[in-house]
Amino acid sequence: MGKEGNTIYWQAHRGGGAYEAPDNTMAAIRYAWELGGIPEVDVRSTRDGVIICLHDATLERTTNAPDEINTLPASQLTFEEIRAWDAGIKFDEKFAGEKVPSLEEMFREMQGHPERMAYLDLKEVDLQQLGAMIDQYGVNKQVIFTHNVQENCKKMKQITQGVKSMQWVGGSPDKIRATFADVLASGFEGLDQVQIHLRSQEGASDWPYVVDREFLQYALDETRKAGVDLEVLPFEIEGGAIHSLLDLGIRWYATDEPARFLQCINEWKAQQ
């Protein structure tokens, strides 16, 4: 973290769940690791206190749970009830049999493999319980805790030694600027990374994003001075746009499309 140069680091948002692997499953997590990335999972708790990897509050979008189950919050279901349903087949039949994983399943595959890192995006979890589990499995230095509230990032780092943290910053360009100003004014307290969401603008010619180039350069300069990584999440992966970000000097990314993103990276490297 905090390294500069031409090494490019990247997060597989939801493990690449939007396009390339079923959302928040062990298949998606392993896929990101195999490609050399850092999978991101969303953490929330079941009724019986099991921490699971699930983005949405319900099972409706990602599993084949029936109507009487799939609209109930996961917090009202037991882990056994959640595991009864397939979390891969709706994405693609070749992923049939995937289940909503417990966080412990992922941690077990991280133990003894320090190169396997993971982002944990807070949804609905007791932070003390999460911290105790991280300590139990000894994966502290492999975890990057993430949320859009800086106070939660600070709290997690106080609970669990060695864990890194990232605050994600989204919304309109004005909101992104205002939130970044607040984080900067705090001296990036409790943060190792800041992520800025990048949405594309229609009919762009010289710059593809609604967040302007000058602001991104400013954010990159300020984070570098503080020894903090600036990560960006471009929601659309297109070679020229990604190359513009690389030319700017940004070296940390998040993507919904790991394979396409890597293709853009390799094309850029070939031009250097």
What is the gyration radius calculated from CA atoms?
18 Å
Question: Helix share of residues?
Answer: 25-40%
Q: How is the CATH topology named?
A: TIM Barrel
What is the overall silhouette? globular
Identify the CATH class.
Alpha Beta
Name the CATH architecture: Alpha-Beta Barrel
Count of domains: 1
Classified in CATH, the superfamily is Phosphatidylinositol (PI) phosphodiesterase
H and E order: EHEEHHHEHEHEHEHEHEH
Q: What is the terminal-to-terminal distance?
A: 23 Å
Strand content: 15-25%
Structural class based on helices, strands and sheet pairing: alpha/beta
Largest sheet: 8 strands, parallel, barrel
The largest sheet has its strands arranged as 1-2-4-5-6-7-8-9
Mean pLDDT across every amino acid position? 95
Number of strands: 9
Total number of helical segments? 10
Protein name: Glycerophosphodiester phosphodiesterase
Written description of the protein model:
The chain is of the alpha/beta class and 272 residues long. It has a single domain, classed as TIM Barrel (Alpha-Beta Barrel). It is 36% helix and 18% strand. The chain is built from ten helices and nine strands. It has helices at 26-35, 67-70, 79-83, 103-110, 127-137, 150-159, 173-185, 213-226, 239-248, 258-271, and strands spanning 9-12, 38-45, 51-53, 118-124, 143-147, 164-169, 193-198, 229-234, 252-255. Strands 1-2-4-5-6-7-8-9 form an eight-stranded parallel barrel, surrounded by four helices. Helix 9 packs across helix 10 (258-271). The radius of gyration is 18 Å and the shape is globular. The two termini are 23 Å apart. The model has no long low-confidence stretch (mean pLDDT 95). It holds the Pfam family GDPD. Residues 8-272 form the GP-PDE domain.
